[in-house]
Amino acid sequence: MRLYLTGNELSIDDIRTFLSQEGTVEITSEALERVKASRATVERIIANKETIYGITTGFGLFSDVLIDPSQYNQLQVNLIRSHACGVGKPFEQNVALVMMVLRLNTLLKGHSGATVDLVRQLQYFINQRIIPVIPQQGSLGASGDLAPLSHLALALIGEGEVYYEGQVLDSSDVLKRLDRAPLVLQAKEGLALINGTQAMTAQGVITFIEAESLAYQSEWIASLKHQALRGITDAYHQSIHIVRNFDEQTAVARRMLDWLEGSSLTTRQGELRVQDPYTLRCIPQIHGASFQVFNYVREKLAHEMNAANDNPLIFDEGDETLVISGGNFHGQPIAFALDFLKIGMSELGNVSERRLERLVNPQLNGGLPAFLSPEPGLQSGAMIMQYAAASLVSENKTLAHPASVDSIPSSANQEDHVSMGTIAARHGYQILENVRRVLAIETIIALQAVELRGVDGLSPKTREQYDKLREIVPSITEDRQFHKDIEQVANYLQKISYYE
């Protein structure tokens, strides 16, 4: 699969396909011409000895310090070296790879003053899967993701570490092996590489892709639980949801009915009871609200993926060329979106834990054994799996605290408000992994509950899911190390993709 980058049309679906098919990137000729034109402007600035931030001056508080023309290129190298002070565990390789794709796409808009050599180096690293090792922590999410993107830039100039063919190696060694020269940074190029939101946006895109798929998967998991509790299908009638006016809610109700079609385990109102508890009756309302969050986040990420978000920016106004210092590197729009994503994901975990609690609680599960134990008393069954789920959703409530409400001034108060968007992105992925394990626990418990209820009564679509999962996790016939089952089901949920 070839992904053609223009600077303007990259989508989340493009990234999903690019990753799943191990694609390569191509640069359109129109985008390359824009790169050349913006670079010509930088060369004119240098020739005319103009005072332009980051090209002929220092950075941050040093923006009023003029740089000797003979040191313009060294200024950029110094910038990258000094700003590469990220700490903590590195981003996953897919995140770092997407980070490079997003940065390349931004440069192709033609507002950054990068050279053709720079965009070709990024393209080469992407296509050869030379992936920079980028520490996760250290970004304030304004002035760009300076620390993470500096580690990306280090790899391009042959000074950082990279993942290559399953190993962590020095970038210089990999480039020598491939007979590829390190990039020599020119004036403005270090700044063009690190002023931007690509770390938070790349992590946000990866989290979004996995979260949306997991949200769809949560519906068939909930459908298993619905049948185990002999749930009432009337609550999913389309008329109820259409009058609420939320398309996402209506869509969830429609999909739930589709999953449950043909089941002999479901009931109608008044057969066993008049109403179900909220965790069954309100699945469309609760899950639908999370899909509303996802739709909002998708829109904001799509905007940012195709945005010019470095500083200064170069504009061709026909009669004149403008070089304007601004603040498009400020991550506030994405910080808000990713904090919102955290809440939408966290709530899917909250309601999942409440559903699985109903299955193991003998006062609520409609006559099933306590904790679905094969021998209540002698064997604990699913008792402590509910504990684990409760712990994860509690942790998520802490992680869901918005990072974007915090700000600590930096650069001697020149940069006096920051977004903390990259923290939101990192915490979002932690929440996602926790929710995936909560849903894995619900899956294991729901499988056991419907088995006790009678799998022959399952709807055809959920029976298909039951049979698939039983190849991964066996019935609970005696107590065992359930953490292995949880991880196996979580891995299954991560690997499969479901999109409407």
Strand content: 5-15%
**Average pLDDT metric:** 94
Give the CATH topology of the largest domain: Fumarase C, Chain A, domain 2
User: Any idea of the CATH class of the largest domain?
Assistant: Mainly Alpha
Alpha carbon gap, first and last residue: 22 Å
Q: Taking Cα atoms only, what radius of gyration do you get, to the nearest Å?
A: 26 Å
Biggest β-sheet strands, sense, barrel: 3 strands, antiparallel
| Broad shape | elongated
Helical residues, percent? 40-55%
**If classified by CATH, what would the architecture of the largest domain be?**
Up-down Bundle
Physical arrangement of strands within the biggest beta sheet: 4-6-7
The CATH homologous superfamily of the largest domain is termed Fumarase/aspartase (Central domain)
Structure class: mainly alpha
Poorly predicted ranges: none
Count of alpha and pi helical runs: 18
Order of helices and strands: EHEHHEHHEEHEEHHHHHHHEEHHHHH
**Domain count:** 2
Q: How many β strands by DSSP?
A: 9
Secondary structure elements and their pairing?
Layout: E1 2-5, H1 12-20, E2 24-27, H2 29-48, H3 72-83, E3 87-90, H4 93-107, H5 116-127, E4 131-132, E5 135-137, H6 146-156, E6 161-164, E7 167-170, H7 171-177, H8 189-194, H9 198-228, H10 238-242, H11 247-260, H12 278-281, H13 283-305, E8 313-316, E9 321-324, H14 332-360, H15 383-399, H16 421-453, H17 460-470, H18 482-495
Parallel strand pairs: 1-2
Antiparallel strand pairs: 3-5, 4-6, 6-7, 8-9
